[in-house]
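Researcher: Next sequence.
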Amino acid sequence: MTNILFICHGNICRSTMAQFVFADMVKRRKMDHLFIIDSAATSREEIGNPPHHGTVRKCREKGVPVLTHYATQMTRQDYDRYDYLIGMDTWNIRNMLRILGNDPDGKVHKLLEFADSDADIADPWYTGDFEATYQDVVRGCEGLLKAIVG
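Model: Next structure:
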């Protein structure tokens, strides 16, 4: 079983989109029984809120099932629960490490690392461009899946 936690600032746009996309990818490959997939925030701003309507709309437009999810904040204990802690941008990584304290086992990654890029996934809360975010999330999730299962 591989446990993955996707993380962004508020847990309503990018990290939920990555959670839904990755869950759909593994389900389509009949590998969903091999993964536990969730998402969380580095901030407390959106705790308890459902995914952003733009994320929901984009996922539905692309045929990606929208799962029931309410924003939660990551905790230091998540380091022991998950094999991969995947941030969406450099700022998220910095805040993740602040929450975790350190990363002795190399579990913290930026999603687009798995697409051979150091780029950040733009936050559609600010850009309004959920399509660009979706495309980057798909690239990162495809690379992550390939890194895990070959």
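Model: The beta strands are 2-8, 35-41, 84-87, 108-110. The chain has one domain: 2-149.
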